[in-house]
């Protein structure tokens, strides 16, 4: 059973989410501030976190950074902040998706299911291991190794890398990447791709400013090259 941690200081929103999630057979924990969220995540190990950014004790972005210090749990931001810069800041900190308030429950639940799917094993058996001169990608184990050490990727970072690696050097269009990684309702949020590609390059490329493996084709898309 999937365990969800709901973090919001609005009791009405927490109550609505808890009722709807439990009705769909999710296990649900809740927290009303950032400190409580971090404690609950450490103790209960949720499968996905739904996080408001406007918390009473700390900004939600700090909670994301705190979680990302030790966990790859999918983080779905639920916030009244609409500005593109604030969305990018949350994604850059390690969030996997962003839903603005007011929100439709059906859309939120669909986004939550997609976040959980991205974090699950691929389930296709295979033992494909792709090696470059700087790092190794194990598609079956969902691991990346660089310099003898595992590289910690968020579920969304992994999914993006996996799509590119499986394309085998072929160009993957921006719209296709967005829809495969974030879902069919996406297609124009190219800032998501810029943020996540920058994060992958920082983690994997020897010189992120001059990438050898994660290549941008301006105005078109991205490709992975060995």
Automatic annotation (TrEMBL):
Ranges annotated as DNA-binding: 127-226
Keywords recorded for this protein, A-Z: Cytoplasm, DNA-binding, Phosphoprotein, Transcription, Transcription regulation, Two-component regulatory system
Domain of life assignment: Bacteria
InterPro entries cross-referenced by the UniProt entry: CheY-like_superfamily, OmpR/PhoB-type_DNA-bd, Sig_transdc_resp-reg_receiver, WalR-like, WH-like_DNA-bd_sf
PTM annotation (4-aspartylphosphate): residues: 52
Domain OmpR/PhoB-type span(s) in chain numbering: 127-226
Residue ranges of every copy of the Response regulatory domain listed in the record: 3-116
PROSITE patterns: OMPR_PHOB, RESPONSE_REGULATORY
Compartmental location: Cytoplasm
Main localization category: cytoplasm
Gene Ontology cellular component list: cytosol; protein-DNA complex
Gene3D superfamilies per record: 3.40.50.2300, 6.10.250.690, Winged helix-like DNA-binding domain superfamily/Winged helix DNA-binding domain
GO-annotated biological processes: positive regulation of DNA-templated transcription
One function term, GO molecular function aspect: identical protein binding
Its job: Member of the two-component regulatory system KdpD/KdpE involved in the regulation of the kdp operon. Upon phosphorylation by KdpD, functions as a transcription regulator by direct binding to promoter regions of target genes to positively regulate their expression.
Protein name (Swiss-Prot/TrEMBL): Transcriptional regulatory protein KdpE
Organism per entry: Streptomyces toyocaensis
């Amino acid at each position: 059973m999937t365990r969800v941690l709901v973090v919001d200081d609005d009791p009405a929103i927490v109550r609505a989410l808890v009722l709807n999630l439990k009705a769909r057979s999710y296990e649900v924990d809740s927290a009303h501030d950032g400190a409580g969220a971090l404690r609950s995540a450490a103790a209960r190990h949720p499968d996905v976190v739904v996080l408001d950014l406007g918390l009473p004790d700390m900004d939600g972005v700090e909670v994301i950074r705190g979680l990302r210090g030790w966990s790859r749990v999918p983080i779905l931001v639920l916030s009244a902040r609409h500005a593109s810069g604030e969305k990018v800041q949350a994604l850059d900190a390690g969030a996997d998706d962003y839903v603005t308030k007011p929100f439709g429950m059906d859309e939120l639940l669909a986004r939550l299911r997609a976040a959980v799917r991205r974090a699950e094993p691929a389930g296709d058996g295979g033992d494909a291991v792709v090696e470059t001169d700087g790092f190794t990608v194990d598609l079956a184990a969902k691991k990346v190794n660089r310099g003898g050490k595992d590289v910690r990727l968020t579920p969304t970072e992994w999914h993006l890398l996996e799509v590119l690696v499986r394309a085998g050097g072929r160009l993957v269009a921006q719209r296709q990447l967005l829809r495969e990684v974030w879902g069919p309702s996406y297609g124009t949020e190219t800032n998501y791709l810029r943020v996540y590609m920058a994060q992958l390059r920082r983690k994997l490329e020897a010189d992120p400013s001059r990438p050898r493996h994660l290549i941008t084709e301006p105005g078109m898309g991205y490709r992975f090259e060995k």
